[in-house]
Amino acid sequence: LIFPEASVARMDLDTTRTRTAYEKIIADFEQGRTDILIGTQMISKGLDFDRVSIVGILNADTMLNYPDFRSYERAFQLMAQVAGRAGRKNKRGRVVLQTKSIDHSIINQVIANDYEQMVSGQLVERQMFHYPPYYRLVYVYLKNKHEALLDMMAKAVAEKLRATFGDRILGPDAPPVARIQTLFIRKIVVKIEYNASMNRARELLLRIQREMLEDERFKSLIVYYDVDPM
């Protein structure tokens, strides 16, 4: 053990299922009964401890590699927020950041605490690749109990969407959570110009859905939409 004499506590969903458990973990750390607090992202949320001098961020690359166009922005926000836990109230602290991507722009912006550079860089990329705030997004989720059939249906839906929306279509792909209970899931992304009519886009999406469900093979397909996903 590196710190054999230290008292260590864990703070995550499993250890904070009750309000009293959460409050005890916070109180023990605040009053010095716990020396090292290990936990998930919830540690970064609004906690202010006088005694914190070192904060460690483990495996930061996981946040950077998450399959979402907002992953860089969210990674910066979380790392900057976690780093802010060290050296509070005019006391200088230290932040240890574990990463395999030391030259990554977001890592360097976190180190420099350069929020403006992060924002300007992300806006350039989002405009280039047609993401918000320059385009609106609609996630089309398809569900079915049979994965092979779902893949066939998802490809057919994507082909019909591309015939209407062209290169504004991404997918189909399996989302990070690709199965819930007995249903497999596939996702298609539709990008729509901000000045385009969403009513017209809605009509086109529903028309394609009706056409697909008219095919006997696709009667069991479940379709739902997430407009402007958060």
UniProtKB/TrEMBL annotation:
Domain Helicase C-terminal, first and last residues per copy: 1-126
GO biological process annotation, one example: DNA recombination
Cross-referenced Pfam families: Helicase_C (PF00271), PriA_C (PF18074)
Protein name, entry field: Primosomal protein N
ATP-binding recorded as keyword: yes
PANTHER family: PRIMOSOMAL PROTEIN N
SUPFAM superfamilies: P-loop containing nucleoside triphosphate hydrolases (SSF52540)
One term of GO molecular function: 3'-5' DNA helicase activity
Keyword list, A-Z: ATP-binding, DNA-binding, Hydrolase, Nucleotide-binding
EC code: 3.6.4.-
